[in-house]
Amino acid sequence: MDIAREARKLLEENRRVTGDHQYTVPSGDHYPYQWLWDSCFHAIALASFEPEAAKAELRSLFSKQFMNGMLPHMIYWEPGALHKYEWGTAGTSALTQPPMVAYAAWEIYKRTNDRAFIEETYPSLLRFYHYLISERDPRDHHLVGIINPDESGEDDSPRFDAVLNVPPDVSAAEHLRRRLELVEANRACNFDAELCMSRHFWVKDVPFNSILAKNLEIMGHIASLLGNHDDENFCMLHLGLVKDAMRERLFADGMFYSSTGQDYKLLRVETWAGFAPLFADLYKPEEAESVVRERLFDPETFWSPHGVRTVSRREPSYRSDGFWRGSTWMAPHWFLYKGLVAYGFAKEAAQIRNASAALIEQSGFREHYNPETGEGYGARDFTWGTLILDMIEA
Question: 387, 4 in Cβ contact below 8 A?
């Protein structure tokens, strides 16, 4: 299989146009709308061979930005019932997703040197990060909170089980029922972040805040490029504050853990989330060495015959076919690959890249994979696998 050719073909096949808006659906059968961080992944992959399509992807996201700056995690461009829960607004959800959009915009700029595109998107980018800092951190402790597991992008992850009050062996149907109850509670508090967090679900998630940190760093670069030095100072100030707060409140025993509630109770469930800070340079070099050598590549915990388990095999919640409860996903592989490269773990990064390519060779572009057998699960023709383009070309 020519993986690069098939990845480019898939992105083209999953492209949709509604009016003046062009975007990519993650899967025509399973996910026929536009998702926030999915579109960021699409833009990163498209930037290398079709940058105009990458720009269109982000423009479509920004066209539905809320007045307060939030970018919704779903946009319903076409009629349909699939996944269209009552999120509280017409045409979009009222939740958000991990803030990868500055990274995607910067990748487009690096490929094209298109300053006009950066100038065009800059106000929308800045408003989104201002929103996260001002409205998702009500106590000014410099950690952004999420109000629903879906905002993490990892809906069923067991690191949220304690907050949802479900057991490790919860069924997928029961987990969905509990999350839909939370959606109803979110609707009752009008999706007001501070109110919903104080009443129902308040998690300071490690990947979300790690991605925020990396994107604040990139926003600083963008502001500097455009000569907006006050904005650059704002971004770099909050980058430092987020990094310090994560170490102060989310770090224990050599790893980062998500937390819940006003008292920052750590959610000590061993998931891939503990490695996400590699993406944002949050580990000290000696800590990274320990985390990578002793934890990430331990076959008894995360490293499997087919890549990285999203949950340690030692966790009672681990299931090799579980949706975010152990199975292997391409987006975590990509984050890990980028983090490993940044820390100088070239051999280990190559292992991630090769495992990703092997999964696609064996089972095609699937939503997730069995880490023990390589079998594909969930949606077919799923676009997250196209992130292999960025790993191949890096």
Answer: no
